């Protein structure tokens, strides 16, 4: 059964990653390209360095599309395996509807909660210390996931208050912020990027959850049928 389950998770993750790439090409990627024109217009301290001394980055066109697709496929598979592991550990039923619910939960944990403190950033925008932001992001995801699990499986007032405290705690502490928010990127462009990223992420998570629910339920049915035949 484990082989079929892993295969189902891999297929769901790959398809969701491919979908994410197509969805991002509609609005997210064009906004990134637009922001880069503002970033490149600002002189940098290392402008006199040779091209060989600059950090490598994929060129616009097929290179950039390929690496975007590759990263989305890896992310899709990783999140699919994480959801599958949680579902199996909690011994939860699985169907298309259940998968959509898990996808919505994943969106809340990995996108909505962190974005309250660290909204998506365009190239050229100011940002706080990288390590501090990573620590805050991991803590926020972990605490939010814990809070949602409490809401789902505990009904007493004490547990519900504990779940709410977990969800709220990282936002009370506050996400690391840059010393200055000055940026060459227009504010309206940044706002459009946040909206586009959140909408695209929501679609990705729903697609991932729905596909995972469908493929996992089919894998379980096939395993049960094979066990009866045996």
Folded structure, characterized:
- The longest helix is centred in the C-terminal third of the chain and has 43 residues, at 187-229.
- The chain contains 7 helices and no strands.
- The chain has helices at 2-24, 28-41, 62-89, 96-117, 130-153, 157-173, 187-229.
- The radius of gyration is 21 Å and the shape is flat.
- 74% of the residues lie in helices and 0% in strands.
- By secondary structure, it is mainly alpha-helical.
Write down the Rg. Answer: 21 Å
Estimate percent helicity. over 70%
- Report the structural category: mainly alpha
Instruction: Give the termini separation.
Output: 14 Å
Tally of individual helices = 7
Gross morphology is: flat
Number of strands: 0
Order of helices and strands: HHHHHHH
Rounded average pLDDT: 89
Largest β sheet strand count, sense and barrel closure? none
Stretches with pLDDT under 50, minimum 5 residues: 45-53
Hey, roughly how much beta strand do the residues contain? under 5%
Keywords:
single chain; 230 residues; mainly alpha; 0% strand
Write the layout of secondary structure elements.
Layout: H1 2-24, H2 28-41, H3 62-89, H4 96-117, H5 130-153, H6 157-173, H7 187-229
Summarize the structure.
It is built from 7 helices and no strands. The protein is mainly α and 230 residues long.
């Amino acid at each position: 059964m484990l082989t079929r389950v892993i295969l189902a998770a891999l297929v769901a993750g790959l398809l969701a990653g491919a979908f994410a790439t197509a969805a991002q090409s509609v609005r997210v990627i064009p906004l990134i390209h637009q922001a880069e024109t503002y970033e490149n217009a600002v002189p940098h301290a290392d402008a006199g360095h040779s091209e060989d001394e600059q950090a490598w980055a994929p060129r616009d066109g097929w290179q950039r599309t390929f690496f975007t697709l590759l990263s989305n496929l890896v992310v899709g598979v990783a999140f699919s395996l994480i959801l599958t592991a949680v579902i199996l550990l909690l011994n939860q039923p699985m169907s298309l509807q259940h998968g959509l619910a898990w996808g919505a939960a994943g969106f809340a944990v990995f996108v909505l909660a962190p974005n309250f403190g660290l909204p998506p950033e365009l190239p050229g925008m100011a940002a706080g210390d990288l390590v501090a932001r990573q620590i805050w992001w991991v803590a926020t995801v972990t605490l939010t996931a814990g809070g949602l699990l409490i809401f789902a499986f505990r009904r007493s007032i004490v547990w519900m208050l504990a779940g709410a405290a977990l969800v709220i705690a990282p936002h009370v502490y506050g996400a690391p912020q840059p010393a200055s928010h000055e940026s060459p990127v227009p504010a309206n462009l940044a706002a459009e990027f946040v909206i586009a990223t959140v909408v695209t992420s929501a679609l990705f998570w729903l697609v991932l959850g729905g596909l995972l629910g469908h493929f996992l339920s089919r894998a379980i049915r096939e395993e049960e049928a094979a066990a009866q035949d045996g």
